[in-house]
Description:
With 330 residues, the protein is an all-alpha fold. It is 64% helix and 2% strand. It binds benzoyl coenzyme A.
Amino acid sequence: MYSQGLIGAGSDNTETPEFLNAFQARIDADEKIEPNDPMPAAYRKTLIRQIGQHAHSEIVGMLPEGNWITRAPTLRRKVALLAKVQDEGGHGLYLYSAAETLGVSRKEMTEELISGRAKYSSIFNYPTQTWADIGAIGWLVDGAAIMNQVPLCRCSYGPYARAMIRVCKEESFHQRQGYEIMLTLAEGSAAQKDMAQDALNRWWWPSLMMFGPPDGDSLHSDQSTLWKIKRFSNDELRQKFVDATVPQALRLGLTLPDEALAWNEAEGRYDYGEIDWDEFWSVVKGHGPLNKDRVAARKKAWDEGAWVREAALAYARKRAARAATPLVAE
Ligand code: BYC
């Protein structure tokens, strides 16, 4: 199966069974692991991989929505969308900082992203074709993100768990603003309702894919669950999302693009149809509609920002040098 190259701490595992057992005992006791605590190399690598991908997703996630800032239909919508996109940038920064506590630099992570080696969420490789897509993203994509991220607030790694608390509060606002856009369109003219339905049709399945492959095909779930990085499996979170979201779609008077969708009274949940896993893996491997454009946009921003990074470093060096030079009394 396709797996991202890992960066950060080396993969040598010289840890003794006693060390590994003592570490697992801390996890089992629900203790938080902090940056300077001893930890197995594989735990560090797993976190660098996941937090790095998560940070990249937030930053790349600014692109599809940023595409609509200049075309938002009212000043109120424009202000809200600007704030949302800015929040996503902030989330990316907290997450890069959380990953840096594990010994990887932001430069290394960014180089992994722009070289195409690092993953980011599959969802951001789809285009935002109409204004209703902004509603659908807020409602579904942020809704899925919250479902996945609320349990991450209890993740065993302290800096990641703490970053998630603030991120989730902001995502909750994002989800509501998206739903409100959908509600306005769904209660508007026939053309507006059609636009909302079309956006739901296009974003529903990719949103379900955000939770990752089915449990049977998940590479990392077992170990990440043992380490309490993951608290629920991919399929469990996907099911929770479906159960929470279907009634919201019904309230909008919209139809979900899934003929197999049905309430299962015995199980107390919605059954849903087969996800197109070939499409998922194709997008994850770089062949989605916009993978190349997304990476190219990040590379352009990184290249064009080189002079800013150089200037900031030069300024910091100058200040440090000045601080080190004793003042000569007159
Ligand atoms: N897209 O073993 P598995 C947001 C990869 S942004 C691409 O189950 P794991 C927002 C996976 O990385 C939302 N790749 O993995 C921002 C692995 O490949 P590698 C982002 C995916 O890690 C702006 C392989 O498939 N949220 O909220 O146990 C606007 C096997 O998977 C995807 C996060 O990143 C995917 N969808 O579980 C609006 C949350 N799914 O690494 C909203 C944090 C799987 O071996 N991350 N892969 O090469 C997680 O919770 C977990 O990493 C996942 C996957 C549940 C995503």
